[in-house]
Structure formats: structure tokens, C-alpha cells
Amino acid sequence: MKAKSYRHIVFQLFFAVMFLMPMMACTKPEEQPAEPINDTIVKPDIPLCDSVFFYEQCLYRPGDYGSQNYRIPAICTLPDGTLLAVNDKRKFNEGDLPQDIDIVCRRSTDNGRTWSEPSNIIVGTGYKHGYGDPALVVCPNGDVLCLFCGLNGFWQSTEADPQGIFVSRSTDGGVSWSQPEDIHTLVWGSQALNSACRNYKGGFIASGNGLVLKRGEHKGRIILVAALCRKNANIADNFAVYSDDNGYTWQVSDCAFYAGDEAKVVELVDGRVLMSVRQSGPRGYAISEDAGAHWGASYTWPEMTTNACNGELLRLSAVDEGGERNILLHSITNSMNRENVSVFISYDEGRTWQDPVTLCAGPSVYSSLTLQRDGTIGAYIEKNPNGACEMWYQNFTYAWLLSLIDN
Questions:
Q1: I want to staple 140 with a disulfide (CB 3.0 to 4.6 A). Which of 60, 71, 91, 220 is the partner?
Q2: How far apart are CA 187 and CA 206, in angstroms?
Q3: In the predicted model, what is the mean pLDDT of residues 331-345?
Q4: Which of 145, 143, 150, 137 is nearest to 88 (CA)?
Q5: What is the pTM of this model?
Q6: How far, in Å, CA of 259 to CA of 238, rounded?
């Protein structure tokens, strides 16, 4: 009886500690909000896919680490479960390039409960010498690539004074990063690999997550999407940028979407690739039948009518990978204003979207999603309740999404 009682007490103490530790974790102790973040029951020690579970914490607020502002989230999960949260450090104002901007990274090795101090991927050194809009992709060989733009602004870019497209590589799980390689001459301008891209004066890769194909003869191909600015008009068109050798060399598709903007891609279970494109109003999309090299007609999703904003596509489950059904998630503002970042769900491989669940009620902007190793969903989101962006990490389950839909 005594042994049983002792074990019972130890068991209770263990779960009390495990429950309280994530609640105590924060970027800095003084940054803890005075009130609970929300009234959702938080159970960070039960990260099961079928648990109704939600957790969030702020990773950056304006003024943190000597920077006036932060923007542009990207989050990914490494094979060992480590999370990388990467974003712009907009030191002196919230403006886009050509402002002086750094790109910084934080790592979590405990499923997003605590985070490392920020480390630099690249440091800006002045006006027209900054870098921004990071995109992450975990290569088949385990390396992590961070692609970003830099130097001049997008609309101001010319071949003589370009906005660069840079690639930096980490071989140690995001602890350190290589000196960036500028690949913009391959993507746009007079030396572009695709002759159609020689009629453009600038370009950048959409921030967030890249795609690695898991099916078909091009398994392992890395695909991201560039927005290229036409020479004679402030109009952007989308092209897929892809690599079959872990990002050491690159190729460029034909035009995937005319008059587009930031775009993301996801692999469908039949091997096709779906591209979702930023637009004001009904969101645009196109499909590739050949692993991103060529693209079909452009369409729109009337059920996803939103502000022109960057969001994320995420494969949650697939029947050919053991899932009970095919499920895609799409994060995006659910408003014609920059507010109410939400998750839409598709059960028919992106043909239609339904059941939007609000992640950030009120002013909010860009978002990035990742599937964490325990099957929960990680989100990295810009909230701007006071007019300047705060960078928030969220962790929740599919069951949590369904619980809000049912209500």
C-alpha cells in the first residue's frame, strides 16, 4: 500500500511539472503577458494527433533584441524533430527591401516549448545591403536551405541594380549557415536559364516553405516559387524554381501564373503539383502534371476570397502514406483586410476548401505551417494588434481544428 501510494504521488508530481514547464517558458521572462494568452486548455505534455490541444507563445515583439520590427515568418521541421523559426529582423523600420534587414533563426529541440536565442543567417549592412523574405526547405540529404532576396527592392530592381536571390545552406540543423550564393542571374535577366525569364527586371522566392516531392520519377525534387517583375510594368508573374540535386543547381519552369505574386506548392497524392497564388479576391491556383516543369491553366477558389497576402500550404495526411484520408491545410487571412489568419481544410486534394478556423482573431498577416514530428501542426504567424508585427509560434492538433468546426 505504501509503495503504491508513493508511486501515485511521484506520478502526480511528474505530470504537474511537465504541465507547468511549457507555461513558464518564454523568450524573456519580462515578456510574459500579464494575462493568459487564451482560455484554451493547454496540455503540452500530451502531443497526440487526436488530442484537442492548442498552445502558443510570442517569439519576438517590436523592440526585442535591439530591433524596432520583425516580419515574414518561415517555419520547418527537421528529421530529428528540431524546429526552425526564421524571419526578418527589420532593425530600423518595418519597410521592405531595400531597407537594412537581417534574417534570424531560432531553434527548438523540445517540440516548440522553449527556443534558442536568435542567431544570424545573414546580416544587413545598410540601405540596399539588406536581406529578407526567407523560405526554408529540408533537402533529401538532410541539409536545410534558406532562400531569400536581398539588396535592391522588388519593384526598383534592374539588371544593373538588381534584387538578388540568395541561397544559404546549413549542414548542422540550422546552427550555422553558409555564405549565401546569389542565383538571380539563373532565374531572371539576360542570362536566365529560361529564355522567357529574360523579359523580367527583378524577382524573389516566396517566403515560407518549399516543397520536396515524395512520389514518382522526380522523387526528391525541391520546388519553390519565384515572383518575377516584368520590365515594362509593375506586374509579377510566377515561375517554379526547382532542383534535383539538393539545391546545388537549379532549373526554372515555364510561366505558371500570370499577374500573380507570392505562391506556394504542395504535392498531390497522384503526383501532380498544386500551386496556390496570392491575389486580392478569390485565390488563384494552377497545377503541374510533370513535377513543376510546366503548368496548366489558371483558376481561382471562390470559397477562399481574401486579402492579397502570403499564406502556406501543408499536407497533413495522405492515404498512400497510411493516413485515413487525404487532408490539405491552407493558412491565409480570412478577410479582405489583413486580419483573421485562419486555416482552411481540403478533403478533395485542393479542388475545394472549407471549414476555416481562425488562428489569430484581429489584425494579422503572413503565416507559415509545418507538420511536427509528433503529428501536431506548427504555425508561425505575424500578429499586429498594435500596428507593428509580433511573431507568434502556435502548436495545435487537427482534433483541435475539428473541435472548433463542430462548435
A1: 220
A2: 14
A3: 97
A4: 150
A5: 0.88
A6: 8
Determine the Cα–Cα distance for residues 46 and 234; give it in Å rounded to an integer.
49
Neighbours of 324 (CB within 10 A): 7
Distance of alpha carbon 257 from alpha carbon 278, whole angstroms = 10
Give CA–CA dist 288/266, Å, rounded. 11
Task: State the burial class of residue 224 (Cβ atoms within 10 Å of its Cβ: 0-12, 13-18, 19+).
Answer: buried
DSSP H/E element including 361: strand 354-371
Q: Do the strands 222-230 and 200-205 form a parallel or antiparallel pair, or are they unpaired?
A: antiparallel
CA separation (Å) from 293 to 140, 241, 242, 278?
A: 19, 9, 8, 20
In this structure, what C-alpha cell is assigned to residue 324?
485515413
In contact, 19 and 44? CB cutoff 8 Å: yes
What mean pLDDT comes out for the span 133-154?
A: 98
Of 93, 132, 92, 87, nearest to 105 by C-alpha is 87
CA 11 to chain CA centroid, nearest Å: 38
